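Is this the right way to post structure tokens for a design question? Let me know if I should format differently. Anyway, here goes:
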């Protein structure tokens, strides 16, 4: 099946922008960015519109409004996020209206807002809402692709590597293998997935790199030209779940969960036409950003 008209819900977001850019750079897609009403000024939307994207708005609580915005769409890529930084966590409630409207509007393929790791039900409240929504997508009758890319390389600092203080904090063994991918490569993988036969009703696992925490630390040390301090704390999950002092923050608990299954086995990179950029390029960019 050929997908020409592609809509990105949440295309103004951190990842959605890079996926929309990759679709536009590819040159074979007509790209729409679906935004929430009310209309608000947005630099990323302006930038994508200047490259040829159409910006459409809908009220996620109004089925007809969403259906109207999605008419003519062949593939809907959801990168919508419930605003984790401000306490939102429910990907299922957020995306269910999108899925219902996509069916009503005749959308052929749905790519849900996953873009992470292989989690299991019961791991965490946030991923549980992704899991329940994933089930709805799989049973929807629409074609689907689940894209797993490990961690965003842009999030390595947040996860474990504090560049300002040259300190690595490991909530898992240093030999834990972490799959990580740059935002621009996730964009390219997602855009190209629409052209792959193997992406139909499938989970595709892709990774820019698969290195252990210790190996990633070596790259941060190389990029900063200094030896880092390492703090190891493997009890974060246990202390959080059992309310033991010092009780970790919910964010530190989420980091510990993220490091439980970050390795992504059976990578599908060889199905794609390009090689992802080397991790050191992203680490150098993170180090440069931290010095600004
Ligand atoms: N693997 C990793 O390391 C990693 C890291 C971060 C995120 N992720 C995943 O990547 C996906 C995208 O995350 P992101 O950080 O790029 O998202 P984001 O920037 O937080 O948000 C994406 C877009 O969602 C829309 N949005 C925000 N709040 C909303 C709400 N309450 N209701 C409806 N739409 C809302 C907004 O678009 P408009 O305002 O234009 O409508 C926003 O630009 C998610 O599945 C997330 O879990 C993975």
């Amino acid at each position: 099946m050929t997908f020409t008209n592609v809509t990105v819900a949440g295309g103004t977001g951190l990842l959605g922008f890079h996926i929309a850019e990759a679709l536009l750079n590819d040159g074979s897609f007509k790209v729409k960015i679906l935004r929430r009403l009310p209309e608000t000024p947005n630099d990323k939307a302006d930038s994508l519109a200047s490259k040829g994207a159409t910006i459409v708005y809908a009220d996620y609580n109004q089925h007809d409004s969403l259906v109207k915005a999605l008419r003519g769409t062949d593939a809907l890529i959801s990168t919508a996020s419930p605003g984790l930084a401000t306490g939102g966590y429910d990907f299922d409630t957020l995306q269910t209206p999108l899925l219902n409207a996509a069916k009503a509007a005749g959308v052929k393929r749905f790519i849900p807002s996953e873009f992470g790791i292989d989690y299991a039900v019961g791991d965490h409240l946030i991923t549980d809402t992704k899991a329940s929504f994933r089930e709805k997508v799989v049973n929807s009758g629409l074609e689907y692709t689940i894209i797993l890319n490990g961690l965003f390389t842009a999030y390595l600092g947040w996860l474990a590597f504090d560049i300002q203080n040259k300190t690595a904090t490991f909530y898992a063994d240093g030999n834990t293998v972490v799959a990580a991918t740059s935002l621009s490569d996730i964009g390219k993988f997602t855009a190209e997935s629409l052209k792959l036969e193997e992406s139909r009703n499938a989970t595709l696992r892709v990774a820019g790199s698969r290195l252990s925490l210790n190996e990633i630390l070596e790259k941060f040390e190389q990029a900063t030209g200094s030896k880092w301090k390492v703090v190891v704390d493997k009890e974060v999950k246990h202390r959080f779940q059992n309310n033991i002092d010092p009780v970790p923050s919910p964010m530190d608990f989420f980091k510990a969960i993220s490091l439980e299954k970050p390795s992504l086995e059976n990578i599908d990179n060889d199905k794609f036409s390009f090689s992802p950029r080397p991790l050191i390029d992203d680490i150098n960019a993170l180090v440069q950003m931290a010095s600004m």
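Format looks fine. Someone answered above. Worth noting: Residues 10, 12-16, 35-36, 60, 79-83, 88, 94, 113-116, 151-152, 155 surround NAP (CB under 6 Å). The chain has a mean pLDDT of 96.
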